C-alpha cells in the first residue's frame, strides 16, 4: 500500500484534474498550527518518543474510544488508571490489540492520518493488521531510536512554521522558556522567526469553580503574579498580568472551552459569584454563570492586549461516567450536544463585536450552527471568524460540509483557516495534508461548475492554507 | 420501463463501476429484517392478499399522506373511518385515484419501492399512470389470486432469512405460535433456522398511562402472566415473565417509541407514579416522566435477559388532529420534532452504557443528531449502536447523509445495519435493494477517492448488509 | 470573462448533459416573482436608476455586511446614518471601495448574481476589481442614463410576468394605483394580464406592539378604513377591510415575519393583550404572544378571503446593536437562530391545516427543519407548502440541500417554487437563472442515477419554475 497521489480528490476526472492543480500550490507550504495540544516539553526536552503503542495508541482518544465502543477496556490498551488499578504495560501487547481492531477505522480520518504517518514519516508501505502488527512495531521502534526521529528533528522535517501549544495561566511556562533559550537548530533559532513554538492562554480551570482544585489554582495565580487573588479585582489584575507573561512566551491567542456560548456582561455579578465561590457558597446556577461572565471579562482584556479569543463550546465533558471514574479526563468520554451562538453571544458582541482591535474565532461541535449562526455572525461582525471544523468534524466529510455551509454566506475570508487541534505531534503533517486536499477539492468543484475561475481558486487555496491563519491568529509578526 | 441495473449508483463512470462491483457481492445475500411491522398473521394464515388497492395503497401512510397533502380525503382512498363514516369500498376506484396522482411521487423512495415491486415481484414493466391504472389493477389482481403470490410463497421467493414483527406484551402471540407449529414449507421448517419469523417486545402501550385503555392493559398483563399488576413490583415481574414468553417466540429485541430520549433512573419514583396513574391521579408531568423512568427499568431487564433495546423517539404522534379524529392512529398524521440524546440518555448510559451484556440501538427522526450525538455515543459506549436511517430518512439521500454523518466518527462497525421498518410486506425486497445500492455507492466513493481499498469496501458491504444486523440484533444463533 | 453556458451544472459529463437538456426547457420561461421587496414606485415613477453605487451597493445588505465583516464601516459605503452622522456621498468612491473588496465574494451567490447582471443586463464582459472599477462605473453610468435601462423597460426586457411587492396595511398603495392607471407599455397593459405588479399584505408593524410607532399605525389603520381600531373587534374588521383593498391592488398573498413560528388560537386573549398594549400596559410575555395570536387571526381571515399566507420566522432582528443604532433596520444586522415549526404551528394547523381553501407557505432560516419538520408538514397537510430556501440559503448549496432534504418526503409538488425575495430589481433575472440551473442540476442527478426519467424531469422542471408558483401563490387568474 502506498499513498495514492490523488487521495481525497473528487472522482470526477475533470474536477480531479482541477483539484490536483490547485493542490500543487499548497502542498509544500509551511505548516501553520495556531491551535493544538502538543506538550511543549516534547520540544524542549527533545527526548526520543516512547514505544509505538505509547506514541500512537495510548494517548489518542480518537483511537481508544473506538476500541472501547467495541468492548476493549481502557486498561487493555494501557490507558493509565485514575484509581491505581493496573493497566497493560507491554507496548507490543497493546499494539497487537490495536492492530487486530484496525479494521474498525476503515475510511475514518484516524486511519487516513495514521496511514499517512506510517508511510510518509516512517517509511512503512504496508497495511496494518494482525499479520503485520509485529513488523510495524519493530520497524517503528527502530526508527524512533534514531536521532532523525527526535521531536525537534521531526519539527524541522515537517516544515512547521508555528506550533501553538495550550497552557493554563498557572502553568510555569518553563518549557517555553527553555525553548526560548535554545540555540539555533538546523540553521534556525528556536523560538525565533522561521519556526517557533508559542503558547496559548487557556484559563478554563480558573473559571469553573466546581473543577476540583479551583481555589488552590486561584491562590497559585496570586503567587505567580504577586497579586491578591482573594478579591475579584485582584483576580482580574492577576489574569491581565499573566497574559503579558504569555504574550512574552509568544502567545497571540486565548482559548476557551466553555460548556456553552452563553455570555453575560455584568462585572458586578461576576465579582459577587467569585467571592461566594471562594467561600464555597455559590449555588449551581451561579457556577454555570461564572464562565459566561468571565468570557466577557476576557473579551475586555483582549481589546486591551490584542490576544485573539478562541471559543469552542459544546462538549458535555466526562459524559461516560465509567470512563471518567476509572481513567479520568480527556480519554474519550466527552459527547457533544446542541448549542446556540446567536442569542448566547449577543452580550459579548454587543460590547465588542465591531471593535477594530477585537477578534474571536468560533468553533463548534454542533454543525447545524455552521449555516444558521456561525456564517451569518462571521459575515456580519468584523470581530468574528469561523473556526475550522473541529473534533468529530475534522474529517473529509466534516470539512466539506463546513465549506458548503459557511462559504456562501461568509465567503472564504471570514474563515480562520485550518487548525489541527492535536496532541499527536506525529500526525500534524497528515492532518494538514488532509485539510489542504479537501479545500482543494471544494474549490475545484466551484471551478468545474464555473462558479470561480482557476486563478481565484489558486489564490484562495494559498490564503486558506497559509495567509489566513497567520493573519487571523496574529502570527504574522 | 424496466429497472435499470445501475439505478441509484453515482453517475460518475469511475465510481459507478466500483459501486457495481461492490454491490455484486451483496445483491443476493439473504434479507435480514430485524425491525418491522408486518402482521404475523399474514404468514400464519397465508391467505391471498386482498385487491391491489388494499394491498398497496390503503394501509401505506407514506402513500396516503402524500395524497392528503394534495387535498385527496382519506375516505376517498378507502382508509377506514374511526367514526363510522363511510369510506370508498371499490378497490378499482381507489387504485385509479392513486394512479392519477402517481406523479406526486416522482423521485421519492415510495415510487422507487413500488416500481421495483411491480417489476421484480409482479412482472409489470410499464409506468403506472391514469392510462395504465386498469391494466395494472387487472394484472396485479390476477397474480394475487395465484398460489405463488401467497405470503409464505413470497417469503421464500424474497429470500428472507429472518423477519421480526412487533407485538405488545398483551398480544397473544398466537400467530407466532401457529408459525412455530407449521410443518416445513419449501424444504424449510417455519420458525426454525434458514427462514424464520420472530417477534419483538414493544411495551409502549403499557408505559404511557394516558394512552386510552392503559389500565385495562395493565390488568390484562396480570392475567396473562398470573402476576398481581396492581403493584409496581408485580408489574415489573409480569413484564419480566412476559419477556421470557417473547424470547420463546424468537424475540431477540425490544422496541421503544418514546416521545423523547429522556431517561430517569429512579425506581421509587416510577413506583409512585405507577400507583397514582392506576388511581387516575398522576398529573401531566408525571405522565411524561413515566416512560422515561420505564426505559431504565427495561434496560435493567435487558442486562438480565439479553434482549437488545431499540429506541426511536421524536415523533409528535397524531399531530394532524383532523386525521386522528376522523381516521385514528398510524395514518400519516405524525410529525417529527427536534430531539436530544446526549443529555437525555445520560442516566441510562451511566447505569448500563459500558455493560458487556447490554446493547441499545438508537434511531432518530432528527438527522441533526447523526453527527452531533449518535455517532459520538455509538463510537464511545460499548452498548450503543447507530440504527439505520428510519422513517422520513429511509431514502437515498437520507441514507447517504446518514453514512456521511456517522461513519467518520463511529466507523461502520458501530452501526447496526439496515432495517426496513415496514408494514408493507411486498416492499421488503425493494427496500433492501435500495439500501444495499446506497451503501455500495457510498463505499464506492470512498474507494474512488482512495480513502478505502476495494477489498475493504467489498468486505464492509457484506458486513453492513448481512453480518452486522445478525450480530447486533442477536440473530446469529 | 463571459458567463459560461454550463455554469452551475454538475461537473460530471453525463449529468451535465442531462442538466443542459432539462434547463433548455425552463431557461426562457417568463419570471414569476411572488415574494419580493422591490419598491413599487420604481415602476410607477419609472425614473432612471441612480449611480451604480446607489443602485448596486448601498441598498444591498448582502454586500455591505460582507464588507463590515472585514472592517469597512457603513458610512464609508454610503449607508445613510440613523443618527445624522455624515456618510460617503461620492458614488465613485463607494464603488471603488466595493471593487477593492470584491474578492471577498468569490464563489458566493452575490458575486454570481452581480456577474450575471453586469454581463447579461449591462453588457460588461470583464472581471470587476480595483483595476476595472472606474471602467465599470463609467460603463454602468452611461447605460443607466439610457431609456432602455429605465425600470419599466427592464421589466419588459426581463420577461417578468408577475412581480409581487410587499406593503404594510397602512401603506397608501398609491404606487400600485398609479401602475393600475398606466396605459399599456410595449403592447401590454400595466397591472393587467401578461405582466403585472401586485402588492402583498404584510402586517408585521401592526402586530408587534413594541415596534416604535405601533399605536399611531393602529390609529392610522382606523382612519384609512373608517373603523374604530381602539377596540380589538374594530382592529380585526379594519384589517379585513384593508385586505380587500390589497386584493383590489392585485394581492394574492400575505407575508409574516414573526420572530418564531409559535401560534396561539385564543381570540379572547388576543383582545385582552391588544387593549393592554394600547394602554402601554402589556408586559414582555404578552408582547411576544400577540404576534402568535394574530397569526391565527390572519389564518382565519385567509380562510374567508383566500389570501395565501407566507410565514418566514427565525431572524433575531437588529442583533448587531452597533449597526442598528448607527444605521437602522435592514442593513445586515439580523442573525438567524434555531426554530421549531412542529409544536409551534400545531394550534394553527389544528384549526385550518386541512381546510380546502387555506394555504400557508413556510420558509426558514434554520435548514435543520427542512427534512425534520417542513417536509413532513408539507407532505402531510393539504394547506402547507414548503417555501423556497430563503435569505442565507438562497444559494447554490442552500438550494441543493433544500431539494435533497425536502423532496424525498414531500415530493416536488408540495414545494411552492422559487422566490427571489429581493430589493435589488436588476438582480431578478440572475436569481431566477441561478435557481433554474440548480433545480435542473438536481433533477439531472435523479435522472443520471435512474431515479426519474428524462420526461418526468423535463416536466417537473417546468412545473417548478413556472406552474407551481403561479398555482400556489394564487397567480393563475
UniProtKB/TrEMBL annotation, chains A, B, C:
SUPFAM superfamilies found in the cross-reference section: Metallo-dependent hydrolases
InterPro entries: Metal_Hydrolase, Uronate_isomerase
Enzyme class at the top of the EC tree: isomerase
Pfam families for the chain: UxaC (PF02614)
Record keywords: Isomerase
Molecular function terms from GO: glucuronate isomerase activity
Pathway: Carbohydrate metabolism; pentose and glucuronate interconversion
Reactions performed catalytically: D-glucuronate = D-fructuronate
Entry's transmembrane regions: none
EC number(s) per entry: 5.3.1.12
Family: Belongs to the metallo-dependent hydrolases superfamily. Uronate isomerase family.
Protein name: Uronate isomerase
UniProt organism field: Glycomyces mayteni
Lineage: Bacteria, Bacillati, Actinomycetota, Actinomycetes, Glycomycetales
Gene name per UniProt: uxaC
